[in-house]
Amino acid sequence: MKRFSTDDVVSLMIGKDTETAERCGAGGMFQVIRVTETLEDGREIDITENIDQGKFYSSNDDVARDLGLDPEKIEFEG
Asked: Which domain holds residue 53?
């Protein structure tokens, strides 16, 4: 697992797979394909390996919480 700072994250770009959830009877949910964080200094870092890609999520906030981030303090893309 890649270590990353949770203090200077400005936004998360979340790539979502909604088709698998739909086929499994979990419509409205998604699995994460990719997660990229953008830091205050503008750097973008792929942190996908820090998330369970097999888990179904119902919101971006849930993804952020699983990464140890406060969803109220960041913006979401995707």
From this structure: 9-77
